[in-house]
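We emphasize that the prediction below concerns an isolated chain of 695 residues; any contacts that depend on oligomerization or on bound cofactors are therefore not represented. The input was used exactly as deposited, without trimming of termini.
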Amino acid sequence: MAARLQRDKLRSEGLGKYDNAIPYLDQNYEEIKAKCLQNGELFTDPQFPAGPEVLGYNELGPYSQQTQGIEWKRPQDIVSDPQFILDGATRTDVCQGALGDCWLLAAIASLSLQETLLSRVILQGQSFQNDYAGIFHFRIWRFGEWLDVVVDDLLPTINNNLVFVHSAEKNEFWTALLEKAYAKLNGSYEALIGGTSTEGFEDFTGGVAEAYNLQNPPNNLLSIIQKALQRGSLIGCSITVRNNQIEAVSSLKLVKGHAYSVTALQEVNYQGKSENLIRIRNPWGQVEWTGPWSDDSSEWQEVDQQVREQLLVKMEDGEFWMSFTDFLGHFSNLEICNLTPDALSQDNLSQWHSEVYEGSWRKGSTAGGCSNYPSTFWANPQFKIQLLEPDDHHHNDNACSCLIALMQKNRRAQRCKGGDMHSIGFSIYEVPKEGVSNEPLQKNFFMMNQSLAHSGSFINRREVCAHFQLPLGEYIIVPSTFEPNQDADFIIRVFTEKQSKFQQVDNNLCESVPPLETVKESDVEDSLKEIFEQVGGKDKEIDIHGLGKILNKMISKNKDLKTGDFCMESCQNMMNLMDTDGSGHLNMMEFQVLWNKIQKWLAIFRMHDADKCGTMNSHEMRLAVEAAGIKLNNKLLEVLVSRYSDENMGISLNRFICCLVKLEAMCHFFTKMDPKKTGQAVIDLPQWLLLTMCG
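Result of the prediction step, given as a token string:
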């Protein structure tokens, strides 16, 4: 928790921006390289060691057939004259090997078309000649942050050939090292099998991707692609797989379920008419389209010779031309990664406003599932967007363009543990006329109101993205997994063409904690006095053991409650709350105040334990704690559910009271340390240790 708070502070100061990238796994490239050069040794990466464990866990597991005979070698042991980049990085440097990561390689091939973008990922000054120390590094965007990822140059080989991605030139290694850095980010090479080009596009640029269904394309798709290429956007395409024909090759040599990159558009004069051609590249570096406008097709003979010589390169390099009509007829999906917010606007270059927020779904607290689960949907994180100005030059004077992208984090790395992408999506609700405060909407609102818009069908992809035209006003965005109780972290990015405000809607902490009451001895209940005198003796004071005896005796009178005895931890927390003089004992009046609280909390517990099973649902814990006078935000709620719920996400009476006592004690302590009510408390180390050790 301390590390997370520190990281949040550093982020607010700019850590994670491109020019202030975070060293991944705390590995600083310059420091490691300098140490290796000083010691005259080559870097070996302890965080991603060359061996079976980084290859994979199933298909590429230690005992799989595919990994037999693999040797890890440095480029200098493979060829006599290794080069990091030879004659510039180009798309022909990206040739797929024995790994099903064509989606990633299509993104790299597209990236190579943009020298400026490529130089942001492949940092300058790296080579096998000058200050070579066996270490290389790449800058990769990851879930809202730029990371600097270092790798050693030990690469998997069989018979002295690279097993995975390689260049057409055997002595060029930038693509193999970049693939290794990306595998390191995801935990293994096998974690890269299967995906969409948008993942790679976004991770190499920090951009935002949109997908188009080519079976029902927009009328201006050709214009969209032209503008995307002009702006340097990265573009991928694929053919949907049916009947499990993954990477099956059609009669015209198109590969189904395989990621291609779009590299150019060109208009040519053919038989007196204008023909739009599109250039596509297969990251295999071979297997090309054999239909019209392919390398050896007759159509080229009727094109001006100068144009033909400029466009047509007859070689088996995986790149080919086809007509735009055939492209729409054969391909199923198109993905475009817009590099900057202004590239999202198809009709003008106005600068878009962008916001990024992190969030999480946690089982039992903030993982409420989609609106099909009305009893828990309200518990999901909520975000409010205020659209304040209409777009320029729009036919509707009240319309505001808004793009929302929801991305789940680190799910590829979960594959080795049996996890994968959740099905995710989001819904948009119009704020009611009376408006909302900066607090979450409750269950009743969602039970009574339909969403105004949504992201479409929930889908198990890393990111879902949708473009909306919304009227001026305020809206609540609710991101969720399809089913409740699925743990995941996410980021949500919102882009608007004109001025807007975007914020997470959450409770303020401890804003209504009731003060400790005071009672006189005459106010103490007679029945309580009798029990107290029996346990407390002549001094009429009790320690935590006596406190436990009295509480358990009092609670046992409630025959309808299914609850066990109060544990010593609960009693210690109660003592910390009520022992105002630090004696370690409670007198009758202090106990009466405590008992008044417990009776109030007991009534709240009964209300939320509707089926009288002895526990309440953890999703209702926020409402129960609020009824006791303490408000929770999402982060604190996640911690409390994790700390006080059982394996079935239930909260017992014992745990509920223990939680409330702890919360009240900490809030009262903060109030004492902040007498001027500034919202900040100053505490020295002895006070901190005393507080935490007693708690």
